Amino acid sequence: MSAQVYLLEEAEGFSKDLLGGKGFGLVAMRKAGLPVPPAFVITTEACRRYLRTGEVPGLWEEVRAKMAALEGLTGKRFGLGEGNNPPLLVSVRSGAPVSMPGMMDTILNLGLSLQGVAALSRATGNPRFAWDSFRRLLAMYGEVVLGERAEVFEGMLSALKERKGARSDADLTAEDLEELAHAYLAHLEARGTPFPMDPWAQLEGAVLAVFRSWNNPRARVYRRIYGIPEDLGTAVVVQAMVFGNLGEDSGTGVGFTRNPATGEKGLYGEYLRNAQGEDVVAGIRTPEPLDRLKDYAPELYGELLRVAERLEGHFRDMQDFEFTVEKGRLFLLQTRSGKRTAQAAVRIAVEMAEEGLITREEAILRVEANALPGLLRPAVDRERAPRPLLKGLPASPGAAFGHAAFSNEGVERLSAQGLPAILVRPETTPEDITGMYLAKGILTARGGLTSHAAVVARGLGVPAVVGAEALRVFPEEGRAVAEGVEVREGDLLTLDGSTGEVYLGAVPLVEAAGEAYLHKLLAWAEPYRRLGVRANADTPEDARRARELGAEGIGLCRTEHMFFHEERLPWVRRLILAATPEEEDEALQALFRFQKEDFKGILKAMDGLPVTVRLLDPPLHEFLPPLEELRQKAEAGDEEARRLLERAEALREVNPMLGFRGVRLLLLRPGIFRMQLKALLEAAKELKEEGLNPRPEVMVPLVADPKEVERAKALAEELFREYGPIPFGTMVETPRAALLAAEIAPLVDFFSFGTNDLTQMAFGLSRDDAGKFLPRYVEEGLLPFDPTERLDEKGVGRLLRLAVEEGRRANPALKLGLCGEHGGEAGSVRFVADLLDYTSASPFRVLTARLAAAQAGLSSLQPV
Ligand code: ADP
Ligand code: MG
Ligand code: MG
Question: Which of 71, 142, 716, 751 could make an S-S bridge to 148, C-beta 3.0–4.6 Å?
Answer without folding.
Answer: 142
